[in-house]
Structures are given as C-alpha cells and as structure tokens.
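To the wet lab folks,

You asked to see what we're planning to order before we commit. Fair enough. Below is the target structure as tokens, and below that is the sequence we designed to fit it. If anything looks off to you, flag it before the synthesis order goes out.
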C-alpha cells in the first residue's frame, strides 16, 4: 500500500515523518493553503529525505512553466495537480519531462466519477495518462484538505480499476477510519493531511505513526 503524508512544512517534522517510512511526503505549493511552504524549504527537505521516500509537489492552477521550474529547483519528480488543470496541461508537462510522475486529483461530488471518465478519455485522445488518480471530497470553494470523506462504496463501485490509472484515496482519512476505508475501496494508495494534525497545518508525528500502523494492520475477523 502506497502511503503519502501531505502538507509537510519544515525540515524537523519532515525528518520525524520520514523516520516512520511512509511511501511519500507531500509539499503544498499553493499560497492560499495554510500548509504551503517555500521552494527553498522544500529543496532542503528533499535533500535530507531518503531517496526511497517519494517527494510529491502539490500544485493548484499553477502554470506549466511554474510547475517545471519548482520541480527542477527542488528535485521533486512527482507532481500532484489539485486544481482545474485541463488534460492539455498534463500533455505539456509530459512532453517537456516524460519521466515526471503525474497524479491527477479529482474531487468527487454528486455526479460521481462521470467527470473523471470524461477527463481521462480526453487525456487518452492527447496521448497522455496520469500515473495515478487521487480522489478527494468535493467541497465547493476549496481544493482539498477539508477533512471531508468521499462516498467510499460509490467510489469502489464506479472506479474502473482495469482501465484507469492507479487509485489513491484521500479525503477525511485518519487513524480511526483508514483501515475501514481501505477494506471498502481497495485503493492502490492513501493520502492524508488534516487527519494527522493536532491543529491546522501542524503535523502530529504520533498521529502519523498511528495512521501508518492502521494502514498496514491486518483486518480483524468478521
């Protein structure tokens, strides 16, 4: 199970989280987020983080040139697009840097996954495919980090696992519910931010540890 702890903002917290060995840590390059950080701090964290832990840059409606510049500066090789970026945006990133891993976030609302299906179809027409799709909860006026969960059973029923990219589940996950979410959705990976915080934008290493332990715990008897 791929695991990502998102919204890391400082070197010391990054080191403590990295010691717990998640699959990835995430950096928010979106100025309106309380979890945003500077390129310089992200560069220092990436430099000190073991290479086995993936560094992911989260962007919201940034220009392709801006995304590529920050990746080049920090050494980040995985981009998570969390805004309104069209399929042509992914195409431009891929054409410039074919080795860049692309995670496309999708906010799931009452229409289910129909918009995602249409988006991926257009990506296919352009000859580009996200490495993974991250499904978060749709909350109007936000781009994630709300602590709201997605409809797990609906997601499990509607996601075309054999045809679509790998599924990353996000949205309202925490140490208490992540095991149930995994059992229902059966995602490739899980992503957490607010669910391991003691206050807004303040990561609690104890909660991170509990979250990872819950992810990797074996389901109990029925």
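Sequence we intend to order:
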């Amino acid at each position: 199970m791929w695991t990502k702890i998102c919204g890391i903002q400082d070197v010391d917290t990054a080191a403590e989280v990295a010691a717990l060995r998640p699959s990835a840590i995430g950096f928010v390059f979106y100025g309106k987020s309380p979890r945003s950080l500077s390129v310089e701090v992200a560069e220092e964290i990436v430099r000190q983080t073991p290479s086995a832990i993936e560094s992911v840059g989260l962007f919201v409606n940034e220009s392709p040139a801006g995304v590529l510049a920050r990746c080049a500066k920090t050494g980040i090789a995985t981009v998570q697009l969390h805004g309104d970026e069209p399929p042509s945006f992914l195409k431009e990133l891929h054409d410039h840097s074919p080795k860049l891993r692309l995670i496309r976030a999708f906010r799931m609302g009452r229409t289910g996954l129909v918009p995602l299906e249409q988006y991926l179809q257009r990506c296919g027409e352009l000859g580009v495919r996200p490495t993974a799709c991250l499904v978060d909860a749709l909350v109007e006026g936000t781009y994630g980090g709300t602590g709201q969960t997605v409809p797990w059973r609906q997601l499990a029923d509607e996601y075309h696992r054999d045809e679509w990219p790998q599924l990353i589940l996000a949205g309202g996950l925490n140490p208490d519910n992540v095991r149930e979410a995994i059992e229902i959705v059966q995602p490739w990976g899980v992503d957490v931010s607010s669910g391991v915080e003691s206050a807004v934008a303040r990561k609690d290493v104890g909660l991170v540890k509990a979250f990872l332990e819950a992810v990797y715990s074996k389901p109990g008897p029925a």
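Structural context that might help your review: The beta strands are 2-6, 24-29, 54-59, 78-81, 101-108, 132-137, 166-169, 189-192, 197-199, 202-203. The longest strand covers residues 101-108.

Thanks,
Computational group
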